[in-house]
Amino acid sequence: MAVTPTAALVQTLNGIQFGFILFMIASGLTVILGILDVLNLAHGELFSLGAYTAIGVFGFIIGIIGPPGDGVVGTAVFILAVLAAVLVTAAILLPVGTLFEAVFLRQIYDRDQVYQLVLTFTLLLILLDVKKFIWGDSSIRTDAVYSAINAIPTSELVGLNYPTYNVFVILVGSAVVAGLFWFFERTKTGRIIRATAIDREMATAIGVSTDRVFTLVFALGAFLAGFAGAMAVPPTSATLEMGTNPLVLSFVVIVIGGLGSLRGAFVGALLVGVIRSWMITLYPPGEIAAPFAIMALILLVKPEGLFGTWGETA
Amino acid sequence: MPERVDRDGTPAYRFLGVEVTRREAAFLVLGVVFLFVIPDIASLSDSLQLSVIHQGLLFGFVAVGLNLLLRHTKLTSFGHAAFFGTGAYATAVLARYAGVQSVGLLLLGAIAAATVMAAIIGVLSLRHTGLYFALLTLAFGQLLYAIALGQSALGGSDGLPIRPGPANQPLLFGTAFSPDVYQVLTYYLTVVVILIGLFVMYRITQSPFRNALDAIGQERTRARFIGLPVRRYVWAAFVISGIYGGVAGGLYAVVRQYVRPEGTLFFLRSGDILFMAILGGFRTLVGPLIGGVVLVFLQDVGQDITQYYEFLTGVVLLILVYGFPRGIVGSLRSGGIVNARLSELRREPSVLSTWGRTAAQSIERKVTAALTSLRIILFGVD
Questions:
Q1: Interface predicted TM-score (ipTM)
Q2: What's the predicted TM-score (pTM) here?
C-alpha cells in the first residue's frame, strides 16, 4: 500500500500526540518507581479517574462560560477555560494520591515488596468499582470541548486537514514536559526529590524528610495521571477498562527508557506512540505487538534501558 | 512401606520421601479424603457448586507454581496468567485444528506449550529482579492477551470451544461420557494431578535445588560467588512454575470446554493468582491452593450479592495485608498479630480501653504530623 507523505505526516502527528499522553502517565509511574520503589498498578485507574472527573468538570465550566465567543478573545477565553478545567481535574486527583500514600502505603514499606504490589492492586480494584458506582457501566463522553477546539483553524492554514485538538494536546504536552524538566532541574523541591532518588539514606542525613518526599511524589504522579486523563478524554469516551492499556504501555515505556529515568520516559513514550501509530497504516495487526517488540529488542541489546537509572540527570 | 523415623523427638513416618508426624499424617489423609468427597457434598448442597471449587483448585494450582518463585527466589511474577492461558489456548488449538480428542494428549500439548512459553519469557525477563521483573512479566502476559484478542484464528474476544472433531467433548480413556459424569471425572482427574503436583513441589522443597533458590533469593551476588549458576537455576524454577500454570490451564480448558481471553489471559487474572498465593500463605506449600479455592469462592458469592465484587475483593485484600500478612494457612499455623490480640482480650477484657486510648493518641499524632507535612509542602519551612 502506498503511503502518501500527507498520510505519513498525519500518522506521525497522531503518534506524537499519543506519545505526549503516554509520557504524562509514564512519567508519574517512573518517578514513583524510582523514588518509592513501588510499582503503582493503580496508575491506569488514576488516569481513567481523571478522564471521568474531567467530563464532569468540562461540563460544569462550559456551563458557566458557554460556547466559545467570536474572535480571538472568545477563543482564547475558551482555551484558558479548558486548561483550567484540566488543572482542576488533576488537582482533584492530588488528595487521592496523597491519602493513599500517607494512610496505606506508608505502613508497609519495610515489608516484602509483594505486599506493596498487592496494596496498589487493591487500590486498582477499589477504584474500578468506585467508578462503576459513580458513573455506571456504560461509557460516557463529552463532545463540546473536542468540537469547539477543532473549530479553531490551525493546520488548515498550511493546507493540511488535521484536528486542532491534537495540535492542542501536543502543545500542552510540550509545556508539561518542559515544566517537569524545569521542576526537577531548577527548583529546590525537584532537586530534593532527585537527591532522594540517588541516595535515600544520605538525603535523610542532610535533613530531607523522606516521608514528605514520598507523599509529594505519589501526589505528583496522581496529578500527572489525572492531567493525562483529562487531556485524553475529549476525542474518545471514558470507559471502565480504559486504564489498562495505558498502564501496560507505560510499563513498556519505562522499560525502554530505563527505570526511573524521566528523559528515558520521554523518548520511550514518543517512540512507542509514533511506531504504534505508523503500524496502524502499515500493518494493522502489528499495532499491539510493535511496542512489545521494541521492548524485547531493547531488553536484549541494552537491558538497563536507553537512559539507565534516574537521579544524576533528570 | 512407611518407615519410622525420629524428628526432633517426635515420632514421624517417611514414605516416598515425604516425612510427616502422626498429626500431620492425619491432616493429610483428611485433606485428601475431603478433596475426593467434594462432588458428593456439592450434590447435597445448593450453595456449594462443584464447578466453583474445581475452578478454585485449578487457579490455586497455578498459585502453587507461582509460589516456587515467590517463596524461594523472592521474585514476584505478575504475569502467571500467561502460562495458564497458554495451556488453555494450546488445548483449544489442538482440539480444534488438529482434532486431538484424548484428554491426556491435550494436557501434554498444554504442558509443552507452557514450557516453551515460560522458557522464552524467562530468558527475556529474568535478567532483572524486583519490580522490574514484575513489570516485565505483566507486560509479556498482556502481550499474549492482546495476541489472543487480535488473532481471528484464536477466536478473538469470543474465544475458542474445545469440541474436537465429531465428539462433543474430549475423550477420557477413549470414551465419551455424559456431561454430569464428565464433570465429576475431570474433577477427580484434577485432584489426582494436584496431588502429584503437590508431591513434586514437596520434593523440590526438600531438595538442594530449593536451598540454592533460597540462597539466590536472599543475596544474588553472594550466591554467584559461592558458585551457584544463578541465572540457570532461576530460569529452571521459572519454567517449572510455568509448567504448573500450563497444566492448570489445560485442565481448565478441558473442563470448561471453552476458553476466552478475559478469563484466562487478562492481567487481573495474574493479580488474582498472586493474591491466592498470599491469601493462602505464600510461606507454605498448600496455602496457595487453599487461597485459590477461598478467593474463587468469595468472588462467586460476591458476584451473587453485589455487582461491586471487585471492591469486595479489594477489601478482603486490605484486611489480609494489614491483619493477616501470613495468609490463612500461615496464620493458623503460627498465631499472627490478630491471634495474639484475641488471646490477650480473652485473658483481660479491660485491655480494650487501653487499646482505644493508644489508637486515639496515635491517630491524633498522625493527623498533626500530616497537617505539619502539608503545611511544609505547601508553604516551605520557616
A1: 0.78
A2: 0.84
